[in-house]
Write a structure and sequence with these properties.
It is built from nine helices and eight strands. By secondary structure, the protein is α/β, with parallel strands linked by helices. An eight-stranded parallel beta barrel has the order 1-2-3-4-5-6-7-8. The N and C termini lie close together (11 Å). 39% of the residues are buried. The structure holds 1,3-dihydroxyacetonephosphate.
């Protein structure tokens, strides 16, 4: 199989022990795919420059610095050896009320700092059931047209698949990815939402899918390592 991306999104989970488990478990292993690990910001410092995987942030602010208590900027992530940053995750759009305009501004800040934004988007269950996925995605994608496409990734994460144990049919995942490619050609598109050891291989095998974004299943280093090695 062609080498694809596996992105581990710890969300607000983990601790120093999980950092240690990752460092030990993924040391000197040759994975068939390229791994990007996105821990919570306070743990980024615990990862060294020389890991056997790449590092990503889970979010960044749209400004590089300033009086924005509690936020993290793109240049800070870059300084801590991140090369990627997740943006517009459905949990941030939902709980932090992030708009597509704000996600666009954050993506600009990320690209200016030399990070590759991985911009998440997806439809809710009602829209999925009514066949509106492409319509919903088209609206998200339109807001990204003026970003630098040589430095951008998209993650298709149906809201109803995140943490639910359910995924769309494989043909649907492939078709949605193909659709995203027609709107933003040349960009790597990942699938996220309930990826686990039983479905990762069949999802990574889909021709239009360049990788996966994993939540819950990345929180145990050993079983995640096994999953990445399949
Ligand atoms: P789960 O893998 O837990 O469904 O989470 C997916 C996700 O939101 C990754 O960003």
């Amino acid at each position: 199989m062609q080498k694809k991306w596996i992105v581990a999104n710890w969300k607000m989970n983990g601790n120093l022990k999980l950092v240690q488990d990752y460092l030990e478990t993924f040391k000197d292993t040759q994975l068939p795919h390229q791994l990007i690990v996105c821990p919570p910001s306070p743990y980024l410092c615990s990862f060294k420059n020389q890991n056997d995987f790449l590092l990503g942030g889970q979010d960044c602010h749209e400004y590089n610095s300033g009086a924005f208590t509690g936020n993290v900027s793109a240049p800070m992530l870059k300084e801590l050896h991140c090369t990627y940053v997740l943006l517009g995750h459905s949990e941030r759009r939902m709980y932090e009320k992030e708009s597509s305009e704000l996600v666009y501004q954050k993506a600009q800040a990320a690209q200016s700092a030399g990070l590759t934004p991985i911009i998440c988007m997806g439809e809710n269950e009602h829209d999925y059931a009514h066949g509106k996925t492409e319509e919903i995605l088209a609206k998200f994608l339109e807001t990204l047209q003026s970003l630098d496409r040589s430095n951008l990734m998209i993650a298709y994460e149906p809201l109803w698949a995140v943490g639910s144990g359910r995924i769309p049919d494989l043909e649907v995942i492939n078709a949605v990815h193909q659709y995203i490619h027609t709107i933003l050609p040349g960009i790597d598109v990942l699938y996220g939402g309930s990826v686990n050891k039983d479905n990762i291989q069949s999802i990574l095998n889909l021709p239009y899918v360049q990788g996966v974004l994993v939540g819950g299943a990345c929180l145990d280093a050993i079983s995640f390592h096994n999953m990445c090695s399949l």
